Protein 1
Amino acid sequence: MSTTCCRLSLLAAIILEVAGTSVMKLSRETWPVLGMGCMYLLLGLSYFFLARAVVKLPVGVAYATWEALGLTLVTIVSVTLLGERFDAVRLTALGLILTGTLLVHHGTGRGGADDSAGTPPGKGGRP
């Protein structure tokens, strides 16, 4: 599986997570049983695609990206479709989450002298 395919899987995982979480809220009063079934299906598919994404992407980077972008998109959906409020505290929190995700991505694979990430076992890395 190519890195591009893994990135597309991560994007699909994010979109499915946002859809599943949004359906959970939207279906609460109108069609709760069908809505919950749909939510479980969408979240299950989200985890499936997240698992496909980590074939080539570092787990920490993939998970941080999935959570941060998912949370940002869920917040946008909740403000635009559900009428929830958006204030400076939420904006600051989302900014910090996205900044943390960028730091995780930037720091991956850049450890100290004893970092053997990317070195196969038996080639100077840990077994």
Protein 2
Amino acid sequence: MPSRRAAAIGWDAFFDAEQLLTRPLLVVIGDKPGVFGAYRDGQEIYGRAASKDKRLFVVEGTSHYDLYDRPEPTRQAIEAATEFFGTQL
């Protein structure tokens, strides 16, 4: 049985996105690309997702990490999620 660490290292968020991501999808990113790659990855997963009902929400002037701990970008992301999933769920 593989270890949890091996499973986490081998996990690929993009695997088969074209077939698996079929439900409504909201991708939230900041517009400041960083070394982590979340800006690029967010755009890629949005583009590859099979969902017909998807939204890419870009928080201007924000990096990936700002979405975790800055109140204003976090508020914008929460409002986008509340609106999007309020109509989808």
Protein 3
Amino acid sequence: MDFSILPYQAADKKLLEKITSTVREHLEEAEFDLGMLSKELGMSKSTLHRKIKAMTGLTPLDFIRNIKMKEACVMLNARQLSISEIAYALGFTNPKYFTKCFKDEFGVTPTEFQQKSIIKMSREV
């Protein structure tokens, strides 16, 4: 059976895209939380929690943090902002906590990530 044609699959994908775009709109807001996200999406926190967990396997807070960490990678590779500026731009009020979250997510600090990307880029040239 081809599950990709089931209507709830498309609805879930659309909801996930809406959640992701809403989080991206509020990346720099430190106070943006599950309550604000659920309000913007017009659903209860418990329903949103259940849906995100079912679709991604992550809690909503982990899902939001995951989006922020992916954006951090893009920003770190661009090398236009310092690590502290990136942390603040992603809604973290403490750069040390940002570094901890980044290391928890990827196993390296933001500085190590940048150093590895320089080495990778120099090998590609």
